């Protein structure tokens, strides 16, 4: 897999703006972008919306969506990424919501279950992933997946 820096350089070369809305990754995605020099050329900013309340207030996630499907769901990831786009209008918008563990998992939503919303040029995709390992392993694997997908998509 190409390094984060190479992918970032690709985004800069093509002048592709990026914003993020994170829950389970807690800012790791934003950090993985902003730790690189020149990231300010493409990274507009992001939200860490850990609580349902902030997902609703900052990203226009519907209360009914969270009530019906839960915060960890395809529907919530999609509404998070679409709300992010409404706020920031970046070329690429990314959302993460899931169960990073070590606790909090259920049979229906086990530890490691992550939904990733990616909006590129107005088209939204939501990925359902099941990552293994410790909390930080799950978070890092989520970020790696996102960068790998971006590398293929830009």
Structure description:
This protein has helices at 4-13, 28-34, 52-59, 63-69, 74-88, 135-153, and strands at residues 18-22, 43-48, 92-98, 113-120, 123-130. It is an alpha/beta fold and 154 residues long. The chain has a single domain (4-153), classed as Maf protein (Alpha-Beta Complex). A hairpin with a 2-residue loop joins strand 4 and strand 5 (123-130). The two termini are 14 Å apart. The mean pLDDT is 96.
Per-chain topology:
Layout: H1 4-13, E1 18-22, H2 28-34, E2 43-48, H3 52-59, H4 63-69, H5 74-88, E3 92-98, E4 113-120, E5 123-130, H6 135-153
Parallel strand pairs: 1-2, 1-3
Antiparallel strand pairs: 3-4, 4-5
Main sheet attributes: strand count, strand direction, barrel closure: 5 strands, mixed
Strand ordering within the main sheet: 2-1-3-4-5
- Average pLDDT, rounded to a whole number, is 96
CATH domain class = Alpha Beta
**What's the quaternary structure here?**
single chain
Overall body shape: globular
Please state the CA-atom Rg, rounded to the nearest Å.
Answer: 14 Å
The count of strands amounts to: 5
Number of helices: 6
Write down the secondary-structure element order. HEHEHHHEEEH
- How many domains, as an integer? 1
Proportion of helical residues: 40-55%
Termini separation: 14 Å
Structural class: alpha/beta
Task: Name the poorly predicted regions.
Answer: none
Percent in strands = 15-25%
CATH fold descriptor: Maf protein
């Amino acid at each position: 897999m190409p390094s984060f820096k190479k992918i970032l350089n690709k985004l800069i070369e093509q002048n592709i703006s990026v914003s993020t809305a994170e829950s389970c990754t807690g800012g790791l995605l934003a950090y993985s972008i902003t730790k690189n020099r020149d990231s300010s050329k493409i990274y507009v900013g992001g939200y860490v919306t850990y609580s349902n309340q902030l997902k609703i207030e900052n990203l226009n996630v519907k209360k009914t969506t969270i009530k019906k499907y839960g915060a960890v769901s395809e529907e919530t990831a999609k509404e998070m990424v679409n709300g992010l786009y409404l706020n920031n209008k970046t070329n690429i918008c990314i959302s993460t919501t899931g169960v990073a563990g070590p606790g909090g998992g259920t049979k229906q939503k086990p530890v490691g279950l992550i939904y990733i919303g990616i909006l590129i040029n107005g088209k939204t995709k939501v990925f359902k992933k099941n990552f293994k390992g410790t909390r930080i392993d799950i978070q890092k694997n989520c970020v790696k997946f996102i960068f790998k997908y971006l590398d293929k998509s830009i």
